[in-house]
Amino acid sequence: MPDIKINDFRGLKEIDVLGLMYDYKKIVSTSIPESFVRNLKNTFVKYGLKYDTVDESFDFRGQSKTYLISKETKYLKAAKRAYKLGRLDLVGRYLGYPECCVKFYYEKLKFSLSNSLLRDIYYNSNSFSWRLNNLLNFEGRTGGIKDLNLFREFTSFFKKTQAISLISHSPCSYDCRQSLKIAYLNHQYLLPYHRLPLSGYLILKNPVFYIDDFHFAIFEGYSGKNSIEYSKLLTRLGVRQFKDYLLRGDRIKIDNNSATVFRGNRILGKISSHKKILILPFDKSI
Ligand SMILES: [Zn+2]
């Protein structure tokens, strides 16, 4: 078992570090905030990790500098070659992502990012495991924001919430068995690094009110078929004009493209959307 000090790796996602160090990811592919680069380079030396960079011409998200990190140079070379050839399916394999999810993601990507990846995952799911809740992990999705104000709001939201997620890929469904295996591994390996067991991650186990990937709210409460009863609005992105209703209400009822917010029996306000509004019942999962 590798002896890891998770703080040595500040600037990388914990689950990426664990996947790499415990060998269920051959590489990590990520951008690194400039302020963390120097420390991380020392960390890579300390743990015998190799790294390389790929520029924007290889990266489908157009990121200017993507770091590839691995225990072995051969995987770095192979991943770089796969990037160059546009073989994102192979890159996905080196990243330890399930084949079913990689296939699903790139099928969707062909039709461009439409801000609704989670909607596609929703319709592909028979049941919902909170361990696969990727709502707050925006990796591979941010290209879909066209509205500048929303992008600013998103940036500050993201800084606050971080990418809380037990998986670093988009699952093909919220009951994908291969993804669940990875989520369980990450969960198990994360435990020793958190004084309070995964308390931050428990936000994933709450009902989600979902319009699209950049307009949603998470409540502390219970989901029904077409409603959420809640005691608290935990966080939201977008839906700015409805913030006050959501804060004052205790129940939200959904009817296709509209939602009504109640406090007791009193209607506080109505929300309408150009897309069908969904409830993602992550509170119901075991
Ligand atoms: Zn899958």
Structural account:
The chain is an alpha+beta fold. It has a domain at 1-95. The chain contains nine helices and ten strands. Strands 9-8-7-6-5-4-10 form a seven-stranded antiparallel beta sheet. The chain has a three-stranded antiparallel beta sheet with strand order 1-3-2, with helices on both faces. α1 crosses α8, α3 (73-84) runs antiparallel to α4 and α4 packs antiparallel against α5. The mean pLDDT is 89. The protein binds zinc ion.
How many beta strands in the DSSP annotation?
Answer: 10
Spatial separation of the terminal alpha carbons: 29 Å
Radius of gyration: 20 Å
Low-pLDDT parts are: none
**Helix fraction by DSSP (H/I, runs of at least 4):** 25-40%
Side by side, the strands of the main sheet go 9-8-7-6-5-4-10
How many helix segments? 9
The molecules bound to the chains, other than polymers, are: zinc ion
Overall mean pLDDT stands at: 89
- SSE string, helices as H and strands as E: HEHEEHHHHHHEEEHEEEE
> What global shape is seen?
elongated
Q: Decide which structural class fits the backbone.
A: alpha+beta
Largest sheet: 7 strands, antiparallel
